[in-house]
């Protein structure tokens, strides 16, 4: 399987519980051994400053911590929008396109002027490469192209439907799938 880094995993209606129910995962790294990403559409009620003082003011709306996944939820991952093609600022590693990983211990005054967006995640999602390939093959995930706006979307509650709606065929149809099919 080609690397899925920079792409989205959109949960299908087959996944019905936990953090992955109607979730969208941005794949940050994927190789022949493992895959890691963050769930981009599940904010929690914790304000960013409660976890990382000083980072909230520049964060993208909604200015909440997002549940990045079920792994190491006591740690934080920061993603930033990095405009242009030049070198990112000190403390930022460009991952792909306009998305970078920010070192949350970096001096904020060097980061803020050089980024266009910020999102903080508690934990991450992780798989072995064969495990993820099996979940995709069994119909648990759709693989879609990501847009930078997806990562920093201001309305995460509707993102699952909107990402699916812009796809073709079955994926667009699934965007209308009811939350409770017994009520259809």
From TrEMBL:
Signal peptide: none annotated. GO terms for cellular component: cytosol. It comes from the Bacteria. It holds the Pfam family DUF179. Belongs to the UPF0301 (AlgH) family. This is Uncharacterized protein. It comes from Janibacter melonis.
